[in-house]
Amino acid sequence: QVQVEDSGGGLVQAGGSLRLSCAVSKTIFSPNTMGWYRQAPGKQRELVARITSTGSTNYVDSVKGRFTISRDNAKNAVYLQMNSLKPEDTAVYYCNLNRVGPFGYDYWGKGTLVTVSS
CA quadruple 41, 47, 49, 50: dihedral positive or negative? Predict the structure, then answer.
């Protein structure tokens, strides 16, 4: 059973920073994509950032230049450095591990709450 544990959320003032972490309990079949999604109250879950096994990244436009995603394949971990946080970044952030195609899978963390006060 693969477990995905996301952490690092909290309360921060606008302009502040947080670093989210996500650990996967064991090595699973690669290549894959690790990513962070978020869901604000009353809104749909949206992709924030994702990174492939080879390090290719993409971000939602609203976080470009402020957030940085990275991964450590040896530790089965992914991180999200969030700088210059804004109140509109307030949401529950979820870690995702996904592989499409043969031996595919889609695992989610339980989420970590990020609250940005103005």
Answer: positive
Task: Provide the pLDDT for residue 28.
Answer: 79
Question: Mean pLDDT across the stretch 25-30?
Answer: 82
DSSP letter at 73 equals G
Peptide bond into 31 cis (omega under 30): yes
Give the CB-side neighbour count of residue 19, counting CA atoms within 13 A: 7
Question: Is 85:38 a contact under the CB 8 Å cutoff?
Answer: no
101 falls in which pLDDT band (50, 70, 90)? confident
Angle 41-45-46 from CA coordinates, rounded to 5°: 120
